[in-house]
Amino acid sequence: MTSTTPPLLSVQGLHVAFPGRRGAADARAVDGVDLDIRRGEIVALVGESGCGKTTLARSLLGLVEPTGGRVTFDGSPLARSGRALKAYRRRAQLVLQDPSGSLNPRHTVYDIVAEGLRIHGHPGDERAAVAEALSRAGLRPPERFFLRYPHELSGGQRQRVVIAGALVLEPELLVADEPVASLDASVRGEILALLLRLRTDLGLAALVVTHDLGLAWNIADRVAVMYLGRIVETGPVEQVLTAPRHPYTQALLSVLPEAPGTPVVLTGEPPDPSFIPSGCRFHVRCQVLAGGAAERAGVADACRHEDPAVLSGGDRAQVACHWARARTEEPAAGTGDGATVRPG
């Protein structure tokens, strides 16, 4: 996979805003995002809760309508008519975080997995398609699960049923929102291995939304770090997670158990998306600016008043940070000291 390969999914200048209450300013949940995902590529979208990850993911599937920008799939702009979205959702499927909440407790596993086929008018052998999807999701022999109900399954088995329900339509893209967050540690590795195997066997592309940098390390080809509605650092996963350039990425990595040095404790909560700060949106919490390193690099004023440009959607390493760009010849650091970390 190279940057010359046309993206399967491409996002240009995406904005999603929600009306504020009682005349308040709109909440800019996604505030200018470019992102490409190529066939067979797994991209991890990481960041704190509330940074806009899930809203971005849902807008890519047509579940949330953007207020600006464009989503293109396989070279064609995503149309918003009911018929166009129905056709698109055969090719792009959502895997939700909580399998217990996304499975109808009154339906058998067979009916849950077959639902997509019935909605889209599958012309072939329904039973064979359901069995194949369950088998690919690791539930074998599949017939053993046909008449079971969700409450009769383990957490890992329920998540496999959710994945089977997505696979039954033979999609080209999976959008997985925190796919293992609700699972026991012993099961997480199995589900991640399944997603990797599906990429290898079926050529599936995937966007994996997560707050877990260790998960990103283990599964992704590329990572995009999101903060307050915008991607602030992106690139190959090993490059970003072993030599982070943005202070926010450095702070996220510094609190991992295997990280060297002292963890970076960010002050305060992420700002309200209705009142995004001027300049770099991270500057009000930035440890580099607070510690004087940005001043010494001559970029403190830019941090406070100049908004870094939106990063392009390509696969090269990029960072939206005045300080990082000013010191491109210096080693990346967790706190400015050249430390790197390999997430476990």
In short:
With 344 residues, the chain is an alpha/beta fold. It has 14 helices and 11 strands. Pfam families: ABC_tran, oligo_HPY.
Assembly annotation: single chain
Distance between the termini: 25 Å
The fraction of residues assigned to DSSP E strands is 15-25%
Low-pLDDT sequence parts? 329-339
Counting helices, strands and paired strands, the structural category is: alpha/beta
Strand count, sense and closure of the main sheet? 7 strands, mixed
Description:
- Belongs to the ABC transporter superfamily.
- This is ABC transporter ATP-binding protein.
- GO terms for molecular function: ATP binding.
- InterPro entries: AAA+_ATPase, ABC_transp_ATP-bind, ABC_transporter-like_ATP-bd, ABC_transporter-like_CS, Oligopep_ABC_C, P-loop_NTPase.
- Keywords: ATP-binding, Nucleotide-binding, Transport.
- The chain is of the alpha/beta class.
- The chain has a domain at 237-326.
- 33% of the residues lie in helices and 19% in strands.
- The protein has 14 helices and eleven strands.
- It has helices at 53-60, 82-91, 99-102, 109-119, 126-136, 155-167, 185-202, 213-219, 237-242, 247-254, 287-290, 293-296, 300-305, 322-326; strands at residues 9-18, 27-37, 42-46, 68-73, 76-77, 92-95, 173-177, 205-210, 222-227, 230-236, 318-319.
- A seven-stranded mixed β-sheet has the order 6-7-8-3-9-10-11, with helices on both faces. A four-stranded antiparallel β-sheet has the order 2-1-4-5, with helices on one face.
- Helix 5 packs across helix 6 and helix 6 (155-167) runs parallel beside helix 7 (185-202).
- Mean pLDDT is 91; it is low at 329-339.
